[in-house]
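S1.2 Input.
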Amino acid sequence: MLEKSYFLLSLLQAGLAQEWEANTPREVVAQEGSCAQIPCRYSYPSHLANLPPVGIWFNNEDQRTLPTVFHSKDHSRELARFRHRTQLSGDLKDGDCSLIINNITQEDAGSYYFRVEFVNVNSYSYRPATQLHVSDFKDKPTIFPEEIIAGKRVNLSCTFNTTCNGTAPVLTWDTPTAIPGSVSNTVTQHGVTLIYTSVLSLIPSPRHQGKTLTCRVSYPTVSSEQIFVLTVQYSPWNLTITFLRVVEDSLINSTDRNSKMIICSVESFPASNLTWSHLHVIMNRTSSNNELWLKLPYATYRKTGDYQCVAENEHGAVEGSITITVDRHAFGEWKAGLFGAGIALSVGLSAFFIFRCMRTARNTGRDHSAQTKHVGRDSPEEQLDKSRQKDNKGQEIKSKLNSYVEEDLYENCKCDQGPVYGNV
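S1.3 Output.
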């Protein structure tokens, strides 16, 4: 009898040596529609280690009502609004009593505590209780940006983190039909955090620039999304040269003496460096700008030829050109008209000078004839005197005639070297 009493006392002391303990947080915050988890670790006296524990979670600290949230042995004891929504995340035999509540509602807010029962032996309720707060669903997935280059495959990652190992969130991508791609999903764990990842793999092109991608996380009753705008880097393309209108044949044929402006524009990202050149001489340039103007003076032969526009950025380059020509037919008519006017003017001046010279000579001859007419018959001495006077007069007239020709004709013909011929 004494030995039996001693044995019972030893068991009681052993039980007291291993206390009833639990480790639970004072507060937990969950978002409506998602999953909530109340972490819990517990211990009990070692002499009960071989007995199956029964785990129970209650939603109210009032011992009189005992609204059951979860019952590991008999789910029929659970309140209807919690049934099929609650579970344990671990094994009671391993000391894990963590509670999971799926599809959280505002009504789920309140205090929760855990109780363990050993059939026909012992039971224990662990305090203090944990206060559960329920907020609106605000969490969004995260998209990690990558350098996006046209023609190169890129993997865009969208992730969502949670510490609740209940109903899993679902990640999906919404993409325009013009952007085909493939999607792969994975789940990893880092400590108590579960990381859900969805990877969208695609090959972008310049036409995808500015397109919107959406990554959405969904629970049974709630969802949220993150928007991502594609910024595609690509080499210059679609180079256009404009001269009052789009130049379709890359040719300007003009005799307009007014200056003109032509513009070179291109599509690229990042913006290109543009250069206008003519006969390998740079006429104008700009940096990080997808358009460049060039002022053209009126058309001359020295300004005709090809004008090149080159656009380049770190991904490539593109070149375009335009040909400036002079309308040779119109230019020839203008030149012929000027040349003909010069000839007509020179011929007219020459005729005028010759007419003047001839008129002067004619007048001189008339004076000579009037002076040599006979009036009666002169004596031999008079005839000799008149003959001498005639010779002297002839010499004088000849001298004057020569003087007129030199002074008038040749002097006025100096206009041959003047501006008329010089401009022809």
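S1.4 Remarks. The chain is about 25% helix and 40% strand.
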